[in-house]
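User: Protein folding is very new to me. Would you mind checking the protein record under this note? It all follows right here:
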Amino acid sequence: ARYEDGIRITDGPTLAIAREVFASENRKLVEALERLGTRARPITGGVFVADYLNKDKYDRVGKIVRVNREVVESSIRAGCLPILTSLAETPEGQILNVNADIAAGELARVLEPLKIVYLNEKNGLYHGTTGKRIESIHLDEEYEDLLKEPWVRYGTKLKLREIKELLDTLPRSSSVAIISAEHLHKELFTHSGAGTLIMRGHRLFSEQDLANVDSDRLRALLMAHDPEISSGAVTAASYWQKLAELKREGGQYWIYGDEPYQVAAIVTRKPGQSISHVDKLVASKAAVLGNITDNAWKLITRDHPQLAWSASRTNDDLSWHFERADGSWAVGDEIVFWYGVEDWKQISDLVAAKAKSA
């Protein structure tokens, strides 16, 4: 193989081998699916129409100019899973090699699917510094910062750019998943799956004045998901007043959320104290499944090097809190969590304050 600018130069002999390999692998996939009881149809041409990308430089490499969606939809209407290859034809009938990821993206643009799945051996994208799998990426919020990361380069940068360009043209509900073949079933039958889920998402905001947020939408979110307000023990109006009083006394509060108000967090800090407290943290089911809560938490941790919060012992997702805390202490029916706090006197005061309010 010969490459130029990361693109495989495809001369006549190379294209002949590519056609043979694609046809063989396509047949294997179709036969395997059929053995498992799934009707499948091999489609090795007629879907992608292309022009030469640069004939002098890359030879028989194509740039897709049109997708014949009818060929794919005809197979689906017949109850067959279409199995395609990344080969295209010019209007004159010359076969050209096209990048498989780009072909999948062009197909997605005309079909507008809910989810596009890319398979890789690693089961997703991995953070170059921590080595941990990235569970989700919200492009509207994270894309620019991700491209500045020193480990995001070469193929990773190209893939992120292509995925962003693709999702920018699709409905906001569409997403891209990168996952290994062995975990594919988890991606097809769950929202977040097991690999890396990439979506446009929504931009997050951080405000220090209630006047700068949509208080009606924030109230509705708290009414739906905050036990204290939904039960009527505290009204939203009285809670707004409490925040205003804190500010008048020299304290601070921060309101975090996303544009459609699927998640919200209210963090407070009393006058003269260094530790901030998560006073409210609420999220819709869609925000939890889409990992928007995790994104909001990242924003909170950037602003607050020392943070404390509590959760009920009956909370269904206590592991989420333990994973984000440096320490914890059970107080009655509640568990106090904290990070960034090393002074035992401060920790003791946190626990004592919780015990007093319980």
Observations:
- The first helix runs from residue 12 to 35.
- The chain has a mean pLDDT of 91.
- The longest strand covers residues 276-283.
